[in-house]
Structure to design on (988 residues):
């Protein structure tokens, strides 16, 4: 029964993750995954107050036991046969930008831990639920959406950690799109090429005029559009940037 | 006044062009350009009957005089100050697939005439109208959308004519996105990677099961989504293929 | 008999074309094509004086009659059964950089005429000779090499003419690589990403320190390396830039 | 004094690594790194017998202590001030090709451990030596070359482990090219797109005719060409495939 299908968002915070969760919460119960409960508590409350349903689960997405525990809680909450209509991987590791020879091993690993291993664990945990969503006759093709960045297609100087992770994430998403598309799961990758308008970036790009930062709600609208594309018309990759961005 | 804004579609026929025209006709008067009136007559009739407004103009998009005449008619019909909310370039030259050494000069030119020169002429004619759309306070950022193909990013054997044209079109669209984005015009490029489900392709891909061809309406929905993206959140490129496509 | 094989270079001038011609002239008689005899006269003289053999033929590479006449002269000079060991397309149309709406139809056509039609005509004329080179047991796989630019993979603002041409050229080269590789002809595309050190660019990039411009001889050495790659080990695309280039 | 400069190759075995080591051994003492001494013992012997100098060091390239120990041995052997003329990263993790949902965490990590972390450790260990090579006036710009694969730019179904690693490696190489190019170190990435002709692939591609596999010596020749490019003319990326390859 399609009504049981849920949406799972990894990496909620004040930007894309929260906007995506709210957007999808209008149609599905949403599960919010973040390491720190501060990242999802008020968001879950907002969604629950406004007629939606949301639960937050503190999860270290790069730790297999933590991910296993999180999906155990999801089954407990929604039933062991629960299917998913959508899963959005929006987590990013620590952003490190420094001269290559000053990187510690942990600095470098920061990108690959989350964007590599974390995305792998999230995909392995959500794909069975998305396939159940296909079997359950989901109104829209169950969707697995990954959030990329400029660094997904450009390895800039001093950005090897972040870029390695984001390139790896793009490879994973493309491989999954090719394997799971024919099974009815729509896998997409969004290249977010610019500064997102969130509290942390307040005051950035002041000289660029209004609307120079990406709207998280705008991203969420595009993710929703990807979700509702029929299986005749799947988009794998989309880029998103503000109209004034230099690229 | 935004209500005056129009949409112009070059390359209407039984597939993408017609679907896009119908989709945008729900919000704007549409102008249908095609070389052969057969391509737009019944479509214009359908739109006009169902409460929209459409006019068709027989145009050779690769001929500057023909394009000039067409836009003269548009001004005559909608007023000399008319602005555009959207312009969609969906024309394709003759599709030629043959051994390179058997190509005539005209065969090779077929790709570049329409996808190169034709797209140039269409862009030069529509951008002033789209900029007027910006000035007129268009509800959604005026959009210039180009239809690409697999051959936009892959030059296959025996496909040099088509691929040269489609690569050139992609270059044009990217250059325009960078120049006109900051002026408020949203320029996009869609890579249509598969067979579109139209009368001409009936019976194709029979063994691939249902929904193995791209829905023209699905493409139109994605073009409309590109159109309604706010200027904080512009997509330049999107790919579209059926879920079973090998890529 | 491999000794008869020649090299044909289109677009000789004081930079890449001349350097390539000299490099290949150490092994093959070379034919120099340029519109203006000033571009090849002293170069041919230099090569002929230093023990090589070169002839120049005034050719408008975008004009089929001119190209036909040029290859008629080649047959007259080298015999009607002459084969080629290498052909290098180094011609570029007029470089136009201006606001899109200020481009004339001729401005826009400048890119596609040479990089599209010109490259097509050159390829159709040289491939039969290169195939003869294969049959003649050329020591190295006969090579067809195209000179690209930054604009081959990036459509910058105000560069739609040049970029459209260079994208089209890249498509052509890839299509030919796929069709003629299996026939033994090695087709390559070089992305020259920077300013070449020629008389015209003297004084450019003064603040970037020594060696900030690309050496035309360096390009020629890489083209020669592409030429001598065995058929087990073909490179289609290579990028070249100075060590200090921002990219 | 340039004569002291060495070459370090990670990932020697019967294919590319050995061919590269032999090629560079004609000009430099070479250090051979591989996990298993079987991979370098006879190769080192061959090089030492034929007038070159080679030492093998058993190294787990994805383990920082092992890498540290290896470079300690290099200093002990060649002196603490030793510089490098070239470093080649040719290691690959276990190749895993299976349905995504059957991958173990270790399967997936196999790609990123070597191509991500291993390449990072190798780069951090070799770049200081390569910079010393610049200071020492190396005849050719010190070179850091990475071996990629088809999976560096294409994430195929069931290949997420290998592709994630190879995409990450490509990101690292591009980031390093941009950071260390201006310091005089030439960083390159080679996309090896086909089956290499080694004992393990004997009998593969039988129906494709002769020369259907990539020659490891051909790869080594191209790596050497990358090495001798002057700093005016740096190539970052090159692709290599057999002439009959479908791509």
């Amino acid at each position: 029964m399609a009504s049981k299908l849920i949406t799972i968002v990894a990496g909620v915070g004040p930007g894309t993750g929260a906007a995506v969760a709210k957007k999808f919460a209008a149609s599905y119960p949403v599960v919010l995954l973040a390491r720190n409960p501060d990242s999802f508590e008020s968001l879950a409350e907002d969604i629950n107050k406004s007629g939606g349903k949301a639960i937050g689960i503190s999860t270290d997405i790069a730790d297999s036991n933590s991910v296993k525990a999180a999906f155990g809680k999801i089954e407990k909450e929604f039933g062991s046969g629960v299917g998913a209509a959508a899963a959005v991987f929006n987590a990013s590791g620590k952003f490190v930008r420094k001269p290559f020879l000053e990187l510690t091993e942990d600095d470098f690993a920061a990108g690959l831990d989350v964007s590599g291993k974390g995305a792998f664990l999230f995909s392995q945990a959500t794909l069975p639920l998305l396939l159940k969503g296909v079997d359950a006759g989901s109104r829209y093709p169950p969707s697995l959406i990954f959030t990329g960045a400029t660094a997904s297609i450009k390895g800039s100087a001093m950005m090897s950690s972040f870029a390695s992770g984001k390139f790896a994430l793009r490879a994973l998403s493309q491989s999954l799109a090719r394997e799971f598309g024919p099974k009815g799961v729509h896998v997409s990758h969004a290249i977010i090429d610019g500064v997102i308008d969130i509290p942390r970036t307040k005051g950035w790009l002041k000289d660029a005029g209004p609307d120079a930062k990406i709207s998280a709600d705008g991203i969420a609208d595009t993710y929703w559009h990807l979700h509702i594309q029929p299986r005749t018309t799947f988009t794998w990759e989309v880029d998103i940037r503000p109209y004034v961005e230099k690229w």
